[in-house]
Write a structure and sequence with these properties.
This protein is mainly α. The protein has one domain (about 5-265). It has helices spanning about 5-10, 10-25, 35-55, 75-95, 100-105, 115-140, 150-175, 180-195, 205-215, 220-230, 235-260, 265; strands at about 60, 65-70. A two-stranded antiparallel ribbon has the order 1-2. The chain is globular and about 55 Å long.
Length: about 270
């Protein structure tokens, strides 16, 4: 059950070095460099904010009082968008992860089960940069956040496990099922609109709310906003179950990956 953590700990120096190199290579040669990691989410949030706030006249209200929140619509979007991007950026890339690194499979002895970690940590670094921008805006607009924001890492951990487990499974399947590279971005886009990233969960009609709750990102996004904006302690029981389930997914994903990786060289 702890195989994926043991492997990461043994190869921690390699993972951190390659994750850092991956982030730097993504923006290498560009005039703005790493600033793009903060600028791109801001541009996307600006677009979403314009569409939902200015064009569609959406309001962020909480049921049952229908009270409009004092926070800027774009800031509420930004908080959920950062967490979702951590998941979607890694998972969308996962089916081609092994195909992008054929030399690691065929020519050298390399711990292949570290590649999902490298991709996930690279996305986590980008999310961390975006969160720093978010906090600067938060401090400028609203002052200091509630003390419950210190609980945010407890919510990020299961989201990271969810990302890692899904990446393990898709990275292994992507070697044999090449169509996953086209299908996965469509699924992650559907997950974006079927999760309370762009709207409050309370705005979803009761008849369809169970569908939104099936999205594995829903719990993380809702509880993240609770600790960042509302100053509420997350439901520790739900959070514990969420963490255990995502940890189990990461463990199963790693075991599946290691079971089939021997066949990679015959296909790549």
């Amino acid at each position: 059950m702890f195989q994926f953590i043991a492997s990461a700990w043994i190869n921690r120096a390699l993972i951190l070095r390659l994750a850092r190199r991956e982030v730097e290579a993504r923006y290498k040669g560009s005039m703005l460099g790493l600033f793009w990691a903060a600028l791109l989410p801001l541009i996307m949030i600006g677009i979403y904010s314009f569409v939902f706030s200015s064009v569609m006249k959406s309001r962020w209200v909480m049921a049952p009082t229908q009270t409009e929140m004092p926070y800027n619509f774009a800031m509420l979007l930004f908080a959920g968008f950062i967490l979702f991007t951590l998941f979607s950026e890694t998972v969308s890339r996962a089916p081609g992860l092994m195909l992008e690194n054929p030399a690691y499979i065929k020519k050298i002895l390399f711990p292949l089960d570290t590649l999902p970690w490298i991709a996930a940590i690279g996305a986590l670094i980008s999310a961390g940069i975006s969160f720093c921008v978010f906090m600067v805006l938060y401090l400028a607009l609203y002052g200091f956040p509630p003390a419950t924001i210190l609980l945010l890492p407890l919510i990020v951990v299961p989201i990271f496990f969810l990302t890692l487990g899904t990446t393990y499974i898709l990275a292994a399947l992507g070697v044999f099922l090449r169509d996953l590279r086209q299908l996965t971005p469509l699924v992650t886009t559907a997950m974006l609109f079927l999760s309370p990233v762009l709207y409050p969960l309370e705005a979803v009609p009761e008849a369809y709310r169970s569908l939104i709750n099936l999205n594995p990102m829903t719990i993380g996004v809702v509880q993240a906003r609770q600790v960042i904006f509302w100053g509420e302690v997350p439901n520790l029981g739900i959070l514990a179950v969420y963490t255990l389930c995502t940890f189990a997914l990461a463990s199963i994903g790693c075991m599946f990956f290691n079971r089939v990786k021997k066949a990679f060289a015959d296909v790549v």
